[in-house]
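User: quick one, fold this
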Amino acid sequence: MPKVLIVTGDAAEDLEVLYPYQRLLEEGYEVDIAAPSVKKLQFVVHDFTDGFDTYTENPGHSWNADVAFADVEPDGYAALVIPGGRAPEYLRLDEDFLRIVRHFFTAAKPVAQICHGALALAAAGVLDGRRTAAYPACAPEVRLAGGTFVDAEAVVDGNLVSARAWPDHPAWMRAFVELLRVRAPVKS
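Assistant:
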């Protein structure tokens, strides 16, 4: 059974971790969650409140990480998922995290990123010449990294499938699963 790696950390967007995790399990993939260390992670829920100029943040679910970034052997995984939230802001500073991300792009394996996950791709230097969706506030970083920001619910550019935020989940995961079925099918 092909394995998919979700790379995340504390303050990741709750829905952007748990929805792909469960959806990929449903498809028959084995899914590991990697983080800076093996521990119980605390996710957050971002929402939009009338009168606020930006999103609000509340505590979300907690979830155990399966493996630390330093121990990840990316060759053992068929695909990568990078959720958003605030986690990518600090994960992009972790050399093992960047090593993992770069591996998937070098090997042209399927990658799904959403929301602030684009910050991690920019830091890894893999957006040059690519089209990607992201949370609109990340558009400047996408452009500075040589990418083209696309304001759409599911953008497919080669091995990269991206979306703006959790309201785009159905289109985002539909496109990612279609790519996985071609590039890393689950054998019955």
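User: anything notable?
Assistant: The mean pLDDT is 97.
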